[in-house]
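Final report, results section. Input specification for complex C-07:
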Amino acid sequence: MIGQLPALQVVVPLLAAPLCVVLRNGTLAWLLAVATSWAALAMAVVLTGQVLAGGPIAYAMGGWLPPWGIEYTIDSFNVLILLIISGSAAAILPFARHSVADEIAPEQHARFYSAFLLIMTGLLGMAATGDVFNLFVFIEISSIATYAAIALGRDRRALTAAFNYLVLGTVGATFYLIGVGLLYAVTGTLNTADLASRIAPLLESRTVIVGFAFISVGLMLKVALFPLHQWLPNAYTYAPSVITTFLAATATKVALYSLLRVAFAVFGAGYVLERLPTEAILLAIAGTAIVVASTTAIFQKDLKRLLAWSSLAQVATIVLGVGIGNAQGLAGALLHMFSHALTKGALFMAAAVFALRLGGTSLERLQGAGRRMPWTSAALVLAGLSLVGVPLTASFVSKWTIVLAALERGWWPVAGFILVTSLLTLAYVVRVVEALYFRPSAADAPAREAPLSMLWPLWLMVAGTFYFGLNSSIPMRLATQAAALLLGVAP
Amino acid sequence: MNLVLDIALLALMGIVAIAIIRLRDLVAVTMLASIYSLLAATMFVILDAADVAFTEAAVGAGISTVLMLAALNLTGFTEKAPLRSAFVPVLIVIATGLVLGYGMMDLPRYGDPSAPIHLHVAPKYLQDTGPEIGIPNVVTAVLASYRGYDTLGETTVIFTAGLGVTLLLSGRRRRRATPESSS
Amino acid sequence: MNDQPIARILTKALVPLVLLFGLYVQVHGEASAGGGFQAGVILGAAVILYGLVFGLDAAKRAVPLGVLYPASGIGVLIYGGVGIASQMLGGDYLDYGVLAGDFVAGQKLGITLVEAGVGITVASVMIIVFLEFTGRRDPA
Amino acid sequence: MSLLGIVNYWVFVALMMLGFYALIARGHLVKKLVGLSVFQASVFLFYISLGKVDGGEPAILVDDPTTIYSNPLPHVLILTAIVVGVATLAVGLALAVRIREAYGTMEEDEITEMDRTA
Amino acid sequence: MTGPEIWLAATLAIPLAGALLIALSGDWPNFRDAISLLSATGLFAANVMLVLMPDHAGTLALAPFLPGAPLVLKIEPLGLMFGLLASGLWIVTTIYAIGYMRANEEANQTRFFACFALALASTMGVAHGGNLITLFVFYEALSLTTYPLVTHHGTPEARRAGRVYLGLLVGSSIALFLFALLWTWAVAGTLDFKPGGILAGNASAAVLSVLLLLFVFGVGKAAVMPLHRWLPAAMVAPAPVSALLHAVAVVKAGVFTLLKIAVYIFGLDLLATLDARDIVLAATGFTILAASIVALREDNLKRRLAYSTVSQLSYIVMATIVASPFAAAGAGAHLVSHAFGKITLFFCAGAIYTAAHKEKVSELNGLGQRMPWTMGAFALGSLAVIGLPPTAGFLSKWTMFQGAIAAGDYALPIVLGLGTLLSAGYLLPVIYRAFFLPPARSGLAATAEAPLPMRVALLFTAAGCIALFLMPDLLTSLPLEAIRGRR
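Structure output:
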């Protein structure tokens, strides 16, 4: 059965989703979802072990060999993404119960968990697939479920946020589809590896260049890379807390993964980094995005919105790592995906707890919560430190790697830029800390610590950021291998 | 060659699309959208894509129209005159169109039997569907078997849509919490 | 429309025909244009037509939402279940060849099953979506 | 003449862009969704036209070995894409209905204004 | 685990466990304060045990951290000196703090003592950090754990001060220190502390000069102008914080870091060849004089002491950068002697605030009669900071002075002389006012000495200033051992 894992990794949550609807009972659906996410995590861990021991695994869906059938390829790059997705889900689903009970109408619970599993399925499929059209299908599974899930937020602005995301997201997906069509037209294949070999002699073709451009823009809309980020802040702010947490930990990163996969695996590092002005474009975009998004975050009055803007800046940091264009930078970018998933997951979990206990996440409501909800507040602060990139946290390791990559290329201004801009992060984290601990709370403020079922996943995430800050060997190994794989050099 | 028919159909589609943009009576727009789908379906037939034509007609002209009318029934039938300047969208659209048009200049000629897509992958489906799958409709064979996994995804998408619509519309209408004053 | 006798009679005659046509498209998709998806749409359309003419309540009595919701999931489960079954029988996921003794027979069986799954999901989702939209009253 | 073989692709591009324009320039939510449908339908047209072979037949196998079939793969892809499109449309319309209930309007400008002053 | 490993681990484990217990024991103040005292004593004992380890040898690997850059603790003479100093004074400060916090009825005392313990744990990491990355990690931790202590009162003023504090310390350390550290790693391929340094032969003189500047200004805790603003800002904190952290642990962590970098990253021989030294000498010279002048004009007692600290820190940096073994040993010695002098002064300032509610120098007239013990200790502390016998300050300044002359450097002696005059100028008037001017009419009548724990503490450290004068070997033996590279 071990050999079947690549398919089961995606199919198990895919089938659990309709099962939730069939079960109808919210509690049963929740139990099923939790079990599914843990099973998915277990599978991802086993796959990681296999990949680390024996290299990439190929799996032919339906037994049809590529390029005729759809192929799954699991290697050190996407196993990292699979870990991120299933790990986040495994921590968030147990956590979700109280928050969902508070925010979602009871008769919708089973459907809500079904939608959650569908988002997860879509993301896992995007990560696992080795077929560019199949990627489109899974993008849409996760997207459509996401649109509906975002709209379930209590504020009416959740609806408009979801609608805007639907429009922009569909434009992105359609652009991607156009790009795939162009590539298909000149090669006749949809399999990533096959596409790579058949596209090699055609790289100067106008069709291929434009195809690459459309794929990139389409996926960048999903990544929410500046200036295509407009949908994200409202979507993260108004979506149900659990959905925000899961999306923030995974969604944009998986989209970025897809972009990197297509760019490097199909077009090749030489084409992307040398033939096209990719480095300059990425550095310019990412640099602007980091400054704009971090500065905007400083002035936000709501914790979730602040964190949403921060996500934009962090994703831009990942892109910056890619833009440095060497193996070290790419490895740093992948590590940062991993560490940021842990960090943002923890931060939005804490925000979800505050939403539950305080009825909202505006900084004003958070005032004085440090005393009344000490565990949640402490977790928020610790995860905030990881966001800044303080040593001993996972983000420090990833930022360190990215800065070293810049120095390796002799780009010390870029190195300095990354360091200086992390101070902007410090500025908004300090604002949150001040609200929690150093401002008086309202007289009638409710005072209850979160239930244990929410605290342990939250602290698990926090512990994760510190564990991987102290011992980064496993993610480091995966990221270094994956970077070598993408750049086409032997690890 | 169906050149004349092609040109006539495409010209009609263009006219319908422009009318969709310009008209503000949304019932008319819905009908035009439905006509656009029917014209597209006709094109699909000309292009030998019978299954696609069938589906486009059923979905585009049928289901979509019913859904839109149902939605409009709940929301009202006219659009307000646009207030905003259309300058930026026009710019984006023209730029996108030009880039896309540029990219299409290196495509194989329309109908060219020696185009790469007719020489790679697809021939295997045409040759082997008979012996391997044993059914005459190659589209079904590819859809359900060779790329059956895509179709599982497609079915999941449909399920997701049903789920999403139910999530959004089935609950009793609750009064939404007023927006938090602080945020 | 409830008081239009002609429409009612026509519909009464039409709905079974449409249903029949839908079933034909479902089972005959292997040989000609059409398949589970198209069949599902047609089946759904038949119910929608019925609902439009005889009223939503009648349609809901004929196919209650309580049945439709699980049905929409069961279609996916059938499709995915065929994949699991082929894994159980030693093949890769969705490898229909192992489902029956003979490879080609297995393929045919698999395709028939998954098309049935598609049809069930599509038909039930079409009806669900229609009922959800029309069941929502215009805001007072 | 290769240019003539390209022109019809350009026509598809023009159609796509008309739909794209309705999507991004128009303020009414339903109108946007109609634009989206037109945009996508035109992309489908482009895909299907790629699969056409001169003198081809639909890919339903017949016993005559000299038959030329059009390429079935784009058809399969587009069948999936059409389904995805209608799924998106359904969810989008449901959202539009809910927005209308919550805001009393479906004009993007008015909604933006209401959110800004909220 | 071997003996050294156990005691190295204890230096972190004791204060961390203390912090945890303190956080959990918030409802029982006596229990909480007992734990504070117990951890302080335990920590000092652990550091004493480290000094007793044969050959001062031993390492403890904490975590793999980054490939090639693990977190390591290591016994090393300079670290022993700093560790002993900080942990020893923690005992005294805890006694003092218990008195202070209770007498002033401060809120959030549990958070206060927990963060205090965390700050000490960080200080121990800085002291015993076995390579530069470990040192950096704990250096950052020290900034973060002391931030809640600075912002303790939660007033708008305290929040503003906290932002300045964190902004300057973390800002400089990330933008400059970390940058220099990464650069060092990039050129040297290691961050280990090695006698003789790791940079020699790995980088051009220009790069080394840039690195030196990045380090000197990046280590913001050394408070070389213009990065000194955080220190006066930190004075909004309660007095025990100012005393232990902003006269000893935090500021000394800065100069200690620079000392370690000079000795083990650059190596004194390489350092002596760098042109950028002149810029640092100029900046520190300027800091000494400018800060002294500001202190002269500052009426708020704690802020006056803070500016005095700014100027004294620059002596240490300057003596380090002179890069002669003897001057560097003097730098190490001054690190200790100034700690004793300045902590005494801050203890006194806190006692004055507690007993008389006075914060300004101009309000202290006649206080000597009311609080003779406190003001007597203040006088002794002042002598130590100015550098007059019979206090340890005299010895350490003298060592720096001689070391600089021996190295043929005359800038330091001149600045040292001027600075000494200025420091007399801002400290002696305080004593003069207290003992020789009549009290203002608005009564000191009800004023008595501060509570006993506070008095015990400040007398103890004042006595320390004299004791170290009588046992000069205690001041210089460990720094000399480090610089001569025994082992």
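Residues 275-487 of chain E form one domain. The longest helix of chain E spans residues 156-188. This concludes the modelling results for the funded period.
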